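S.,

Sequence below, as promised.
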Amino acid sequence: MKNFSDLTEREILAVAISSEEEDSRIYMSFAEDLAERYPASAKVFEEMAEEEKSHRNALMQMYDERFGPHLPPIRREDVKGFLKRRPVWLSKNLPLETVRKEAENMEYQAARFYQKAAERTTDLGIRKLLGDLAAVEATHRETAGRLEEAHLTEEARDEEGKTQHRMFVLQYVQPGLAGLMDGSVSTLAPLFAAAFATQNNWQTFLVGMAASIGAGISMGFAEALSDDGSMTGRGSPWIRGTICGFMTTLGGVGHTLPYLVPDTWKNAFWLATGLAAIIVVIELWAIAWIRAKYMDTPFLQAVFQVVVGGVIVLLAGIWIGAH
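The prediction came back faster than expected:
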C-alpha cells in the first residue's frame, strides 16, 4: 500500500475517479434495495448516484487534459489511511436509517479526501477542481435534504414511516418476542421442578441457567436457519438469530436469578421461589403487552394466551418436582 503523501497528482486523480465510480454503484445498490419498500428514498439515492457520475466525468475530463486517456490501476484500497467502505450494500432489506447513515459517512470520507488532495497538488486547475468537489461533498447532506424535499412528499413520508414500522416488527420485534416467550415459558417447568425436588437454591440456579442458555442457543440457531430474509424481508438471519437467542436466554435468566439467595438464609427457598414467581408474572404481562402493542393482538386475548399458558407450565413444573 502507498502512503497518501507519496501519491502523484496523476494517482490522486485516478483514485478520485475510481472512488466516484464505486460510490455511484453503491448508491444505485441502495436505490435498488429500497425501491420496493421506500420508493421515494430510492429516488433520492438514484439522483445521488447520478451526481457521483457527474463528479467522475469532471475528474476524467481533467485527467485526460493533463495525463491522457490511460488510468493507472490504483484505488483507495491501495492507499494507507483510507477508511474502508463497510459492505452493507451487499445485504438486502437494510433498515432505511442504516442506509442513510452509511451515505453520510461516505460523503464525509469523500470530502476529507478531496480536502487533503487539494492541499497536496500544485496544479492550479486540479486544485480548484478538487477544492470544488470537497465543498460539494461536504454539503451533500444538504443536497440530500433538497432531494428529499423534491421526492419525499408528506404522503410518501407517511407511507415510508408505516413501512419502517413493519420492517422493525419483522426484523426485531418478532424474533425478540418469540425468544422471550420461549425463554420465559419453556424454562418454568424445569426450574420449578428442580426447585421443589431439591429445595436447594444453588442447585436450582444451576438448572435454571443451563435451561436458559441451552434454550437460547437452540432458539438462536433455529431462527437464523429458518429464513434467509431474501423473500420475506425479515433482514439478516444472523441478526434475527442473535436477537432471538439473547431474548430467550434473558427470559429464562430473569426468574432464575432469585435462586442466588444463599441457602444459609432463613426460609431461603421460599424467599427465592416467591421472588421468582413475582418475576414470572411480570415477564408474562410484558409479553402480553408487547403482543398487544406490536402484533395487533387484543390485550385481554394476549393476556389469556400468555398468562394462562405460562401458569399451566409453572404448575406442571411444581407438580413434577413435588412428586
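The CA atoms of residues 77 and 288 lie 50 Å apart.

Coffee later?
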